[in-house]
Amino acid sequence: MGDQEPVNPTPEMTPETPSPGAAEPQPVHGEPVQGEPVHGETVQGEPALETPPPALGPGPYYGTGRRKTSVARVYLRAGAGQVRVNGRKLDEFFVSHTWRQHAREPLSFVGAADQYDAEIRVSGGGSSGQAGAVRMGLARALALANPELKSKLRRGGFLTRDPRMKERKKYGQKGARKRFQWTKR
């Protein structure tokens, strides 16, 4: 027994051969994993091409607009400029010239009034709020249809939600701000 070498119960492992079932070493945060493409490169090491802008197809492009308590869902498609609100023409739905002009404003602002057809479903609130909701929904859908117009629409104020809402009535008062009449006795 003195001449024999002690038997090692576990076989020797070389650094090149990992043990079966052993977890692979995890990379330190921020370091690229070997074989993975680095940001801006493809797998072969060639520079990556810039991603093209989304294809400006026929649509539909969707935009949601809100104003006061009104919500408008706008579907924009390439077309001849027909705008329908709740199944009726825009001129029939909004009786006031001001409301019609306000609702059409994003299309005329970018010069696309005769390039797109819009199908709009609007609910809640009154006519003024609905016209504002249609305006915002059209602007959001236009920004999706043509991303180059987004900065122009943003500068024009069409993509900003108007936060003004009706103020709530307070208890102990007649309304939001109005008080009950004060009596001396």
Keywords:
single chain, 185 residues, alpha+beta, Ribosomal Protein S5, domain 2, 5-stranded mixed sheet, 4 helices, 5 strands, 16% strand
Mean pLDDT: 81
CATH architecture of the domain at 61-149: 2-Layer Sandwich
* Proportion of residues in β-strands: 15-25%
Distance between the termini: 119 Å
What does the overall shape look like? Answer: flat
Order of helix and strand elements from N to C terminus: EEEEHHEHH
Q: Describe the main β-sheet briefly.
A: 5 strands, mixed
Poorly predicted spans: 38-43, 48-55
Structural class: alpha+beta
CATH class annotation of the domain at 61-149: Alpha Beta
The quaternary structure here is: single chain
* Number of separate strands: 5
Predict the CATH topology of the domain at 61-149.
Ribosomal Protein S5, domain 2
Helix content: 10-25%
What is the gyration radius calculated from CA atoms?
A: 32 Å
